[in-house]
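Input.
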Amino acid sequence: MSTLRWLRGLLARLSLRTRLVLLTVVLLTAGLVASTVVVHHLLRAYLQEQTDRQLVPAADLFARIPPSLSLNPTTTDRPLTKEAAERLSALNLFDTPAVLYLDAAGQSVGAAGTQPDTRPQLPAPATVVAHGTDPFTVSGQDGGPRWRVVVRPLADTARLLDSPSDPKAVSVAVATSTGEADVTVDRLWTISTTVAAALLAVLAAVGWFAVRSGFRPLTSIEETATAIAAGDLSHRVPDLAAPQTEIGRLATVINNMLVQIETAFAARADSEARMRRFVADASHELRTPLVGIKGSTDLYRMGALPTTEDIDRTMDRISGEAERLARLVEDMLQLARLDETPHHTGIPLQLAPTDLRTLAVDALRDVRALDPTRPVELTGPDDGAPASSAALADEAALRQVVSNLVGNAVTHTPGGTPIRIGVGTVDGHAVLEVADQGPGMTDEQAKQVFERFYRVDSSRTRSAGAGAGLGLSIVHSLVTAHHGRVELTTSPGQGATFRLLLPPVTDTIR
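Output.
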């Protein structure tokens, strides 16, 4: 158990690349060893089968002929007779066989075919008897080659025809050497192990370089992650693999994720910058009326307002500054409420059928009240004739929207600049628009004009009456809550047109 734990700990300290190569080498080694062993045993079994196919007929032959026809009458240790040798030659044996005649006790009573010191060493008679008629293998004398042996009982005719002077044999053991087969198998084993070892070394080297090449994209991803961790969010994973591969898909997903992260970080940084700017601007906006109120009260406490007229003028100034402060605080609170629900869909609205033409007429009067010298006209969308435009809306909220647009046009255009208010229907939408012929905005300014806390005039010493950059953001949020949208058409020197598009009454009810 401790060895297994140590091995796991060792593997855990290795890199994935090294572990893959080691696993590949181990599997290849196991496969090569298994295949070599199987081939070795199959070849040995095949050669043994071939030997048995030749040895069994030889044993059957000697079992049918008398021993006297195989043995020389002068001695029991001699070569085969000419007749026996010719019959064996016809069987195509591998080598000259050894023939041993056994008596009833299993003892050898005669042998022929090989020299005594090269004959097989038969086991105990009981063991020989236990094998029956099946071939079996025995060792040679003095560590010589092994022998394949088959024992057959002598046929009755062979025993009857035998010479009375010869020892009485009851069985014959025919054996042939397996030396050549063993040498062949051993040589194959040596060649197989040598080739397997060389092949394993080559495959291990090739596998190392292949795994290293295959892991190159992951190395690139690692380098990219390191660069990103160091703060370089613009770093990307290069295209090192086809898009349909696992590495290619991983690189695409990581790059897409990095784009989103970079965008999110940029948006957060921009939001933080705008928030810091808003805090500074809001502080300035709040401080200005507060300073005016405090200054007026200090004058009153110091007795610097001797007459009733002086006191009345000071009270009017305090009232005006307080109203300005209240409007600013109310705008900030309204934006905070708008932030409480996603997409501003949770803003409580009192929806009812509303004719935008009524709001347009009231907006016309507001412009004339704010600047009687300014030309203003009521038209339809895009200078057409005004028309009825019904929408299901919160009239109070839309009045605030229109009031902010009109105030924005009056505040940010020079005195006497014409203003047009359009109302009607376009492509099934209820439309109300406020257009001016003022200085207009650039494309970059137009993209940011609905963002909260954004002002085209970034200076704090802007014209009187200019807000803190909250009006158009409130407009956008309220129109979005009505499931509508605000479009802006502008260019430098060509004025600006703010168009509200709201769903008609029937679409909103449905």
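The chain has three domains: 12-185, 293-339, 342-509.
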